[in-house]
Fold these 3 entries.
Entry 1:
Amino acid sequence: MALRLRDDFLWGAATSGHQVEGGNWNSDWWEFEHAAGAPVSGPSGDACDSYHRFEEDIQLVRDLGLNAYRFGVEWPRVEPEDGEFSIAAIDHYRRVVATCRERGIEPLVTFSHHTLPRWAAHRGGWLWPELPQRFGRYADRLSRAFGDELRWVMTINQPDLVANIGYRYGQEPAGWEALKSTDGEAVAQRCTPLLLAGHRLAREAIRASMPGASVGVGLASVEWTGFEGSEEELEQLPAVREWDGPFYNETGGDDYVGVQVYTRRLAVPLDGSPALSPGLEGYPEPPGTRLTSAGWPFHPESLAPAVRRTARKTGLPILITENGIGTEDDAERIEFLTRALGSLGEAVRDGIDVRGYFHWSLLDNFEWGQGYGVRFGIAEVDRRTFARTLKPSAHVLGGYARRNEVP
Ligand code: BGC
């Protein structure tokens, strides 16, 4: 039986600046993509040229019957040098917001999605003690410019992932640099408090100039599977506690929390071997586990447990700010989406306050270290002409949105 959702439910698709805009050459990622030996399969180049084609992207969202669009502002464009702000770049992002409004689309704007301006990364990125203050200053500039135009803002995309994958394992530029002289554990521990401070300062700036906006972070929420003890015991496993514990604690002063869920992690080995403490990425999956083309276990039903855990830990209203699958096969995307929305329905039936669902992603875009080889989009992008072609999954998502229901 289909379940009808609240009338103001946000149905959206998500992107981030660097992954779709193109030509983001002043960012640390651009430099990383061209550095010898960096763990990146190739440059982002023109990406999807969304910096120029944002109207077309917003129109796609509208034509599908969605009512919301999540996109990112690129700090490297807005503040190309320390303390030097670009009026033209800020005006550009105001036009993106205005276009959303004209077309009846609710914008959710991310202030930092994995990239930093080069000048900030060269001083250590999220390991530089002054970065939180700089991030707060940038957030203040943006907030004054957007004023009362925004109702939904995300300060930092997945600070938990930035700390634990980006810096601990050197998958992001400043982390990669730092690991040349320090170990991952120390790096993750140093950047976590700075990410939290950056979030707090940005939140203050947003509240001061945009009193009508809801502010939060999106966390790389995971379903920890296979643990038979109590919920409290699960939360005490070092991997579970270290991954996102400090970040969940920080959401206390936020207005909402974004759940970004793609897959599950194993809290105990499924092959019966003795369970010590799992690594941050959980125990290995048993042989034969169905994997997506991003190499992650295919597990759309992770959505409800991830939402339940987040609700339990934060008590805040929830937006699913990312959920999706990297696959070449759109029929597999439809299967994933349908089952994930069914799982969302379970969480809603439990009475959890879920306000929206944003599919990752609107476009086949630059998938960070994996380049253009992994496709998350509900629309394909011709890499030569940038023409967008909606995939059947886009219409399936649009259908649920128009009916405002989940299976
Ligand atoms: C990130 C996106 C990324 C997606 C798929 C999320 O963790 O926010 O930028 O493309 O996962 O890997």
Entry 2:
Amino acid sequence: MAAPATPSNLRIDAGRLWSSILETARIGATAKGGINRLTLTDLDRQVRDWFVAACRAAGCTVTIDALGNIFARRPGRDNALPPIAMGSHLDTQPTGGKFDGVIGVLAGLEVLRTLNDSGIETQAPIEVINWTNEEGSRFAPAMLASGVFAGVFTPDYAYTRQDRDGVSFAEALDGIGYRGEAPCGGRKLGAFFELHIEQGPILEAEAKTIGVVSGVQAMRWYELTLTGADSHAGTTPMRLRRDALLAAASVIQAVNALALAHAPDAVGTVGLIEARPNSRNVVPGEVFLTIDLRHPDDAVVAAMEHQLGIALDAIAAEAGIGASLDRNWDSPAVPFDPDCIAAVERAAAAQGLPARRITSGAGHDAAYIARVAPTAMIFVPCDGGVSHNELENASAEHVAAGANVLLQAVLETDARLYGS
Ligand code: HGY
Ligand code: MN
Ligand code: MN
């Protein structure tokens, strides 16, 4: 006769969690085994509908706020207490994987299902959250709706963000019917925990199962428009050209050099580029491109930004073109809550899981929620550290281990904050 499940030896149902991951991965599945489920598309609506139905089937009340954030709530003994929350995001990159964001939401659902199965009553309500537009791929910046919840952005700022086709966030949100009545933010969370794949190579290289995330690095995004002159590819002498795409090539090299100059921790990326008129026999007169700079230290990112400006001025002068740079996102480095970090660390140790402290190179909703609630994250490895790639892969064993650490960190925090 197995010992009755008490909170410390309670474990999630690994098979049920893995089935949920594979079931939802069919929504937006790509031929290469990934997911293309951009935020506020009909595919996002379908996975949202799946999540809402599953949470209701688990006995939760579901609230949707004015930014489309979904809050599934399992009642506790005292429902006036600020909830202990878990969550992440169900939107993906265009060539996303099955695990980025998804495991944080579905492991939260699995924790609720496990608490139901074991009949455990927590002191505070427990919530699982799906944050809208974490990726920032369709609507920049990233972590937009968790940012509104944390008071970083206004709802109107979010509503007016446009995708590259000129569709606004508000139009897309209304288009899938997920603009809720509840205000976004302005309510307390007792704590927030986010389970996520590391999306980098460290845990796998060190054979660690759990990353105890101490914080998130600084990140800045920019939009750059280079303006030269359209001209005929056959008749315009090289010396008379004002080729915006040639200048863009220099910008891409400069961003790379900037990151290498601040090695080993800096990263710099040009991820999106549009040449206009994008015709094979026209010298491009205009280029739009994006720049992503990151480093664990705010001061270094600021220095990189300054050096970027100097490089752009030199490139524009040399090429005889205009350059207009707009910083459209500035997310400072974020330290997580020591007590929540310790809860994650204790949960990993109690389950005998090899773990290490780690800083997140990727942005996460937890980075903004840390401004309004005690917050920490749990990482698990992914194969080769590969993410934002259809080949992204994690093992059922590691995902289950992360979900068990999430379960125990939530139970311990409920007991620590509210007694139970
Ligand atoms: O950009 C990021 O780090 C996250 O994936 N949104
Ligand atoms: Mn993510
Ligand atoms: Mn991502």
Entry 3:
Amino acid sequence: MSEDTKAAKDAEKMEKIVSLCKRRGFIFQSAEIYGGLNGCWDYGPLGVELKRNLKDYWWRKNVRERDDVVGLDGSILTHQEALKSSGHVGGFSDPMVDCRTCKSRFRADQVCESKCPEKPSKNPEENGCDLTEPRDFNLMFETKMGASSDDGSIAYLRPETAQSIFVQFKNVCDQTGERVKMPFGIAQIGKAFRNEINPRNFTFRSREFEQMEIEYFCRAEDGLELTDYWLEERLKFYESIGIPREKLHVLDVPDGERGHYSSKTYDIEYEFPFGIQELEGVAYRTDYDLKAHSEGVGKPQEYVDQAAGEKFIPHVVEPSAGCDRTILALICEAYEEEVITNDKGKQETRVVMRFDPKMAPIKCAIFPLLKNKPELVAKSKEVLDLLRPFMNVTYDETGAVGRRYRRGDEAGTPFSVTVDFDTIGENGPENEGTVTLRERDSMEQIRIPITDLVAHLLPLIQ
Ligand code: GAP
């Protein structure tokens, strides 16, 4: 396939994904009925379940199943002094350029290859934007707290979840007492805000997004080794949620391109349809942040090792994942169009979202074969109630069963159960109390007693 054909196919795939996300209620543009709020997105009924599954699984793997990581949920509004100490107030900016003709605004490192719409010309060479010199544009959203309007009331929406972890470092150490021993981590999932100059690629670069971060505190001599350790842990995590290793790339970020705080960073990148782009950064932040806050407050933000009788400011390794970007990767990875032969022997294309069952928004759909047969409906509702405490389930009685399967495939529902005449004993006692269970990917169906459903499904969805 030529480069151009591939690019056109990838762009078409992305368009289909965006349209499916809207149609099926994964992701909507924020305030769409008002023309949209640029760089902001709302997750619909399926999207919110997918996101919750991702966050819960991340939390389970990185906090609950580890002895060395505890959690935190910090405030979004952030003290301006904290962000002065961290370097964000003075330095968290992107270089911005404007086109003097069409007034478009670009990040200087991503300048438009597109033509200037205000300069119609037959010669594309003469058609580019007329750009200003780059100037720094601070990415933080600033707000005022309380009724007074002096500078003292300025606060910021946090640009990363990390800072509240550093600011609460001493409290967490003091409170958790025996539990945290170096090395240990503090994890947080939450919103972050950046006034991106050019939000783009669907949710990939947004102005409001969620991060899933761990600040893993350690001794200086262990920093580099732990950076490699966390890189591997994180790659394994992505594989475990259904993103294959061969679609992940590791970029050892060169000198001069890392964050101001980092002496080693790996970017974990994914092959999105719009290019290979960053999902997560695993950064060795050294003791930059805790030192900066120590200076900011005039008190050392140090770790006290009671047993060894020593005190020191720890170093930190930070795996920082974008929740929305991971969701987008999961959606892109799951999307597939498959040509199949339907029950009438005709070829048709089914769109199937092949989510890992752990991530799938709905785990199992329950169908009565016919909606106008009360015994089938009642039995289906019984099955629904049986499964509901254990997993997210849905009930669907509209249209032919084949159509319902297709709807489930588009939602990425890995299992569906059909309650038919055998289930209610109308074809004799042999199959009474059993249902058909269909698996999304293989489309294979088995007959299984209703009483075995929970035990059968639970290991497959966790
Ligand atoms: N605490 C370190 C930090 O914030 P970062 O590389 O700026 O580092 C970490 O951000 C992750 O947050 C990125 O890898 C990405 O997944 C996500 N992220 C950053 N900016 C984003 C944006 N504008 N929209 C969506 N996700 C973003």
